[in-house]
Amino acid sequence: MTVAVDRPTDSALTAPAQPPAKASRQRPRTGRTGKNGAAYVFLTPWLIGAALLTVGPMIASLYLSFTDYDLFSAPEFIGIANYQRMVDDPRFWSAVGVTLNYVLVAAPLKLLAALAIALLLNKARRGQGFYRSAFYAPSLLGASVAVALVWRTLFANDGVVDNGLSTVGIDGGGWISNPKLSLYVLVILAIWQFGAPMVIFLAGLKQIPQDLYDASAVDGAGRLRTFWSVTVPMLSPVIFFNLVLEVINAFQAFTASYIISGGRGGPIDSTLFFTLYLYDRAFTAFDMGYASAMAWVLLVAIGIVTALIFRSSRAWVFYSGEEK
Amino acid sequence: MATIIERRPPRAAQRAKTGRSRVASIVWHVFCLALLALLLYPVAWLLGSSFKPGTEILTNMNVLPDAFTFDNYATVFEGVGGLSFWTMLGNSLLISTLAVVGNVFSCTLAAYAFARLRFRMRAPFFAFMLVTIMLPMHVVLIPQFIIFQQLGMIGTFLPLVLPKFLATEAFFVFLIVQFIKGIPRELDEAATIDGAGPYRTFGYVIFPLLTPALITTTIFSFIWSWDDFFSQLIYLNNPDTYTLQLGLRLFVDQTSASSFGPMFAMSVLAILPVVIFFAVFQRYLVDGVATSGLKG
Amino acid sequence: MPRRTRPGVIALAGIAALTLVGATACSSGSPDDTAESGPVTISFTWWGNDERAALTEQAIDLFEEANPDITVKSSFSTIDAYIPKLATQIAGGGAPDLFLIPMESVREYSSKNALTPLTDYIDDGTIRTEDITEEALKVGTIDDTVMGLTLGLANNAMVYNPTVWAAAGAEAPGADFTWDDLKAAGEKIRGASDGKTAALSDPGGQIAYFEMYLLQNGKHLFTEDGEVGFTEKDLADWWTLAGELREAGTTTDAETTSTIDQSMQNSGLARGISAAEFSAASLTGAYSDTLGAENIAIAPFPTDTDESGMTLNGTNVAAVSSKSKHPEAAAKLLDFIINDSEAGKILGLSRGIPTNSATYEAISPTLEGGNKTVSDFVSEYQDTFQAPAPLAPAGASTIPADFTLAYEQIIFGQTELKDAAKATVASITSAIS
User: Fold this and answer.
1) Domain count of chain B?
2) Do C129 and C161 fall within a single domain?
3) C191 and C77 in a common domain
């Protein structure tokens, strides 16, 4: 009975996959896997956490987005005025442009880098542990002042990158100080820190049963064929996960610009991420109402994009444990 | 896009089984090391700069110092603003360790429910969980602060640790959900046929097969709570509870002096535990446990 | 989607409502509820680096020894982290009893009722003001009510690298140094460095130095009434001057300027891109740490008028929270930090020239290094310092960043100077209205 109720909405989240011929391990499902009761036992911590720490603050922030709230005095209801203000706020639109640009470029490139390195490191070789740790190291630095110093210097006028490009005839000057290029300094920083998705890819690769590769070899499939018919479909839930998370992360990018641009998002707002501007409104301008409204705009935007990715996942994500 | 992936790494990685494995192995190592040399320059510069005198750091972009000194490390070990380095290290370790325990415990439970159990509110709850990843933290900060304030927890480690035991880091729930979905369902079904309910299926079938996901959760929980400057800043008041991240930032203040030398030394010292942690735990990513589980 | 409303939803809405009530009520101040007579615990937060932290903690220990019935819980971080934390605490109703705020924010915090007026404590002698000059008192005074007291005083000035200036054969800046003299020096410094080093980091986008320029010309950023104190023409004049210097090569070019900010790691002077920088004189020690003491000296601003454009500003203004349950104990601590001679010795010049003039006199012979340089500079040029500018009105907190952005738009050729001046005056006017 519950199954029937669940079914329609559920499908958006757990999309039936198109089983690739080689990798199909699906069996008809047998149905009964659990009861409501057991599910809520497992969910107890999450439910408490959601009720106590998440739902309240979210509703509060939604309410605040309709108020004039300076953090010091009580919020004052002003309807949709905060949302209307965005339309005429040039910096808001700068932030939207910068962020969209960043999401479109940084998220896919970072994923590609992470997947490439994960595949590179997946096979047992001597020193594998060392390589994994070494490739993860850039991510451990986070966006510290030290990283900001290096990055600013590398991409400065007459820095390593500028001089390197000059030798091949491209004299672009410093990237960090060029409003057209400064965002790409942050993109490269994001790609450089591919460690987290790499580890998740590695964990996913480890989960692929060896017998699938064996079967593929028996069938005489070449490496390329095996990659497409075994690795990609079996890894697709993890690719999907990383894609969703990296897109969300890119929308929420904050620290890199905060550190590297000294919190300003310059030059001339060229690295003004949406969340950086939001933070600026909240804690420099003490305009928490406007900041909350911005947060909800962001939430809706991310929600739409995530929903689209989820929808597309029906076509390309394959769960070996999923019922048809 | 995928062809780029295919063209390079797998070629290097997959030759191990062929007769040319020796050559392939050398090519692989050379390629990896070359790539690392490029990627790790900033890391090396950080390390090298921690041995430079303060007057050299902003002007010398070489990895190696012109004048080598241990003073920066000595300064850090003397304490930062009257705080002992070891106290801060202990606080960071405690918070991160509890975060790992909390996340592994609570997120695995929640993920199992979402991935395998059927219940009425599954779809809306799951959607809501995803939504919580999407909201920027800066706007829920103040309402959350008020809740912890009402609970009398400000100034303790609880606001940093308790949420982890309540599966509020939806990232990990989602991560483990994806992994559980990858575990073939016939394993559950076999257990069900043997008379196991959801609890035993979870305990004896799913949980042991989740090692790669749990290791991933462990590594990230540790590192991310280690690096979580902003929450630590907001919720910790007593200097005795300060963490390495809070201490580290004290070296660079725009309105007073900035001591780059000790800051670099302390950056290195603060990264060291996570490097060790990562190096130790990444071993368990080796050899898919799922494989052996499947065959059994 | 669920079709029925669930009781759970209502409960959750209840929690949300509670959260909001908490936000608006700003209820409980500090957790302890002891009566005023017994032992009390107060909280004190401030910002600064590791060095200032160690000194301040020592001073607090001294206070606790002298006042055994008062326990002080202190907390500190650097300025960029401090402001959001304090705002969160105030919004959450957990403001510390005693806290520090930048001078520019006094009116903002005061107008939002976050501060306790100190008049009563000054009148009853809890806070002693006899050794505090009128200028210093004025820093935290709004409409004749003292809302806070600055812990130190500092002036802005031109910090320069004497080694580079001398090597280029440029005239060292001093008392009668004009903007034209600066240009002449700039030519020599460019020439001596193959065009790589500017004489000065371009100050055009920093509102603090526009204020300096206004002072040199007898005006202020803001009037006593909290109105804009300058015209579009004044701003256009400043940016025109900055433009001439930039085009002459005296100051850094647009791209370089955009990589420079007030932090030491992005300082043009500290990185060797320029040979001088307008800065808070109190940062002299910080520059010395990064460049070597022999490479750092302070000079007055260039000026074409009789005015130096320098004032003694407040640095860290101590204020008592309006929600404090123990304002008297907080006031006692405030008094101790400013007026106690032992505490004064410990704190030294860590927050600028001490507000208490007796303390300053006592410690000035013992100063060394960067502190001595600053102190000597103040002694030498004190006569040229102008009266402190009126406090910035509430709402001014975003103005510096907007000002910088407007200037960047000019130097990157996105906006005409006149239009930028017009837009900036308009945006400042609307921010403070």
Assistant:
1) 2
2) no
3) no
A16 to chain B: which residues are within 8 Å by CB?
A: none
Q: Cβ–Cβ of B13/A127 closer than 8 Å?
A: no
CB of B136 within 8 Å of a chain A CB? The answer is yes
Whether B127 and B38 share a structural domain: no
Answer yes or no: do C265 and C370 share one domain: no
Structure tokens at B135: 């909201």
> Does residue B237 sit at the C interface (CB-CB below 8 Å)?
yes
Residues B69, B123, single domain; the answer is: no
Distance CA B53, CA C52 (A): 21
Are B172 and B133 within one domain?
A: yes
CB contact under 8 A, C263 and A262: yes
Q: Say what the ipTM of the complex is.
A: 0.79
Range of the domain at B64: 2-78
* CATH code of the domain containing B253: 1.10.3720.10
Q: What is the pLDDT along chain A (324 residues), one digit of tens a residue?
A: 233 333 333 333 333 333 343 333 444 443 444 457 888 888 889 999 988 888 888 888 888 899 988 888 888 899 898 999 999 888 899 999 999 999 999 999 999 999 999 888 887 677 778 888 888 888 887 767 677 777 777 777 777 777 777 777 776 677 777 888 888 888 988 899 898 889 888 888 877 877 888 888 888 878 888 888 888 888 888 898 899 889 998 998 888 888 777 778 878 888 899 998 998 888 888 888 899 999 999 999 999 999 999 888 888 887 766 544
Q: Sort strands C149-150 and C98-102 into parallel, antiparallel or unpaired.
A: unpaired
Contacts B125 to A, Cβ<8 Å: 43
In chain A, which residue's Cα lies nearest the Cα of C3?
Answer: A5
Domains of chain A: 86-316 (1.10.3720.10)
CB-based contact, B283 to chain A, within 8 Å: yes
- Show the tokens assigned to A157: 């006028």
User: At a CB cut-off of 8 Å and minimum separation 6, what does C317 contact?
Assistant: C100, C101, C102, C103, C105, C106, C139, C140, C148, C149, C150, C151
Domain that holds residue C133: 31-152+314-374
CB within 8 Å of chain C, chain B residues 161-220: none
Cα distance between residue A303 and residue A287, in whole Å: 24
Q: DSSP letter at C350?
A: B
Closest CA to B155 of C24, C74, C63: C74
In terms of domains, do C289 and C334 share one? no
B residues 246-285 closer than 8 Å to C (CB): 246-247, 249-260, 262
Are B134 and A299 within 8 A, CB to CB? Answer: yes
Q: Kindly list the residues from chain B whose CB atom is less than 8 angstroms away from the CB atom of residue A28.
A: none
Residue C410: closest CA among chain A residues belongs to which residue? A268
Domains identified in chain C, total number: 2
Residue B63 sits in the same domain as residue B192: no
CB contact under 8 A, C79 and B255: yes
Instruction: Read off the DSSP letter of residue C136.
Output: H
Q: What distance in Å separates residue B82's CA from the closest CA in chain A?
A: 22
Same domain for B246 and B158: yes
Q: Tokens in use for B182? A: 């990858």
B200 in contact with A at a CB cutoff of 8 Å? Answer: no
Task: Report if residue C19 sits inside a domain.
Answer: no
Angle at the Cα of B221 from the Cα atoms of B215 and B222, rounded to 5 degrees: 95
Of the candidates B109, B130, B285, the beta carbon closest to that of A42 is on: B109
Contact criterion met (CB below 8 Å) for C187 and C248? yes
Residues in C 383-422 with any Cβ partner in A closer than 8 A: 397-398, 401, 404-405, 408-409, 412, 414
In this structure, are C105 and C173 located in the same domain?
no
Q: Which helix (H) or strand (E) holds C342?
A: helix C341-347
pTM: predicted TM-score of the whole model, two decimal places: 0.82
Domain identity same for C40 and C173: no
Identify whether C24 is part of a domain. no
